[in-house]
């Protein structure tokens, strides 16, 4: 679609720059909204006693999923979008989706009940990466074309290039605090809780084995 045709579709009298509006939506809308379903998912894991059912395995899968999403986000906040960064984002979204299927399969095959509300929360967590990626690709359609051409002829296509207009330290600090509060702390607590429960079960099993051995004597 040409720029002129796109301008015709825009609301009459609108003077808003679509690129700026989309960027603000990504930075102050979509990215912060990611934390709410993530925290809600942690609450569901706690309510369904993940430490006594799926245990450490599922909790580690959650950590893996957050890493798969976190790395592309961190790079996008610090570097220019180019074919290299788009490749990382696409790979992260694809691997995250595959890991999400593994996560649900692990939960279902355990004794943990995955309730409908948790499945609905998962739908947000799975769709948000694709929504963010689609918006970025619209904002940087020139880089998408460059990616399809293998990065030619841009010499910086396959290297990380710092942002020409860096995000403010205040914004980055705020996102960092939100990640620590809504992601790192709750899911770190979940993993710790699962490991403690696993150690307690092992200790109980060892004590029972010793008791049975003593009883046999």
Quick take:
The protein is mainly alpha-helical and 217 residues long. The protein has helices spanning 3-9, 18-33, 35-47, 55-78, 83-108, 116-139, 141-148, 169-216.
What characteristics describe this protein?
8 helices, 76% helix, mainly alpha, single chain, 217 residues
Overview of the molecule:
The chain has 217 residues and is mostly helical. The chain is built from eight helices and no strands. The model has no long low-confidence stretch (mean pLDDT 90).
What's the layout of helices and strands?
Blueprint: H1 3-9, H2 18-33, H3 35-47, H4 55-78, H5 83-108, H6 116-139, H7 141-148, H8 169-216
Helix pairs in contact: 2-6, 3-6, 3-8, 4-5, 4-8, 5-6, 5-7
Our count of helices gives 8
First and last CA, distance: 84 Å
Q: What is the alpha-carbon Rg in Å?
A: 23 Å
* Strands, count: 0
Which spans of ≥5 residues are poorly predicted at pLDDT below 50? none
Mean pLDDT: 90
* Spatial shape: elongated
What's the assembly state of these chains?
single chain
Q: What proportion of the residues form beta strands (DSSP E)?
A: under 5%
Order of helices and strands: HHHHHHHH
The main sheet comes to: none
| Class by SSE composition | mainly alpha
- Helical amount among residues, as a percent range? over 70%
């Amino acid at each position: 679609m040409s720029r002129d045709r796109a301008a015709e579709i825009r609301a009459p009298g609108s003077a808003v720059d679509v690129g700026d509006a989309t960027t603000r939506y990504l930075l102050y809308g979509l990215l912060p909204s990611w934390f709410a379903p993530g925290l809600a998912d942690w609450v569901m894991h706690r309510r369904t006693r993940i430490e006594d059912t799926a245990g450490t395995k599922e909790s580690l899968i959650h950590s893996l999923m957050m890493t798969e999403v976190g790395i592309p986000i961190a790079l996008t906040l610090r570097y220019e979008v180019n074919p290299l960064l788009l490749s990382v984002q696409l790979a992260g979204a694809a691997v995250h989706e595959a890991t999400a299927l593994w996560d649900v399969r692990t939960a279902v095959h355990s004794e943990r009940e995955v309730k409908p509300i948790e499945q609905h929360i998962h739908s947000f967590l799975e769709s948000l990466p694709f929504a963010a990626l689609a918006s970025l690709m619209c904002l940087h359609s020139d880089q998408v074309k460059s990616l399809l051409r293998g990065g030619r002829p841009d010499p910086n296509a396959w290297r990380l290039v710092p942002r020409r207009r860096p995000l403010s330290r205040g914004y980055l600090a705020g996102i960092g605090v939100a990640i620590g509060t809504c992601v790192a702390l709750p899911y770190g607590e979940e993993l710790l809780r699962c490991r403690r429960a696993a150690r307690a079960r092992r200790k109980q099993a060892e004590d029972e084995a010793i008791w049975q051995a003593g009883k046999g004597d």
